[in-house]
């Protein structure tokens, strides 16, 4: 009798553990998108529309680009507002932001899109110096902000977008504070979280060789897209596919 009860009890515990594991292993359904320098969150519209259509909860961070610390706070605020864990996606400088913000326990994985993947102690400027980009269009203002030369914006930043779209992006660009590019990351979340990287092979704003180097160093699952620095705008389906793969392979 006692043996029968023990067997029944063991079966109940095993079934409970199985159901618990299945619940824990559910794919992540929250995606937080982080833009980079000279852009804003509207660039994610195509990707966000696809993700939303496919059943994901999407949050687009409008970080102020006043400092790395401020941008990490804005991203953390978005992560905390989501119900459950999230995949953090960063474009360009957004990679700096998600590398720091990704240490939040509610972040299940990271996706870098033509983005910087710093190690602890590295700033954006440190990484640029390793492998400079083809473009020399980034300039500084007298009061400590950066801007992208409008005359070179289409060719060097958004070559695979229609000229009219690139022109509007150029005239509406966000000018980040220089200190955001100078600030180092304190802890690299890709060392403890799974990561994916999209390399833009025709990128003139971030050296594709640097993108590959950082992705390899982080052991990121890597996909290459034949696109400019804003390939996520020009090729939203390809970018959304990688994000969805990351969500499916990460767990709550």
UniProtKB/TrEMBL annotation:
UniProt KW Signal keyword: yes
Keywords: Hydrolase, Signal
Any coiled-coil regions, as ranges: none
Gene3D superfamilies associated with the record: alpha/beta hydrolase
GO molecular function: hydrolase activity
AB hydrolase-1 domain location: 31-241
Pfam families: Abhydrolase_6
Positions of transmembrane segments: none
Keyword Lipoprotein: no
Signal peptide: 1-25
InterPro entries: AB_hydrolase_1, AB_hydrolase_fold, Sec-Metab_Biosynth_Hydrolase
Name of the molecule in the record: Alpha/beta hydrolase
Protein source organism: Herbaspirillum lusitanum
